[in-house]
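Hi everyone, sorry if this is the wrong subforum. Our group has a chain we'd like a structural model of before ordering constructs, and none of us has done structure prediction before. Sequence below.
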Amino acid sequence: MDSPYPSATFLRSKESRAFEEFWRALRGEKLVPARADFQPAKARSFLGDIVLMEAPTETKPVYRIRVTGQRFDNLIGANLTGRNNLDFMPEEYHAGSIAAGRTVVELPCGLWQISPAHLVRGYATNLEITAFPLGADESGLSYILMQVLPAGGLNSVSLPTDQGVGIDTALTHQYIDIGAGVPAA
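Answer:
Right subforum, don't worry. Here is the predicted structure as tokens:
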């Protein structure tokens, strides 16, 4: 079946690599920084593009969005704080998305991907998503800290969504080794 998305080769942006360096600086000597190590005041240049979500677990397979940056809200066309990220993708992608999120936290590793997204304004574009784990807070919840950037190009595709926002399966992705390896292909 032909893909409705234009074929392209995607490379990680310098902004994505800078976000990785920021995250690595948070952890000090630890493999993964704790949630408390992420202080918004230290992330000024990334703050507008940040999404902080609760990581899915076996008993709670959701991505509750806790914080979104203003540039992200402007890009998407809505503030998604408090929502479950899975609400914005077709159900057939939920299991794979949950597995990827659990891998990021449990292995641990980073994740970089390009995903088409249908935005509130009625058009679709590709998003560059870079994600890294944050260790548990005092309640035992782990988190995923993401940077979400427009990856260029508008698509004529309209994703089926009743939420105003829709995220399709990744066009490309790669896990990022943070010191514990990456999943086997």
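For your construct planning: The mean pLDDT is 88. The first strand starts at residue 50 and ends at 54.
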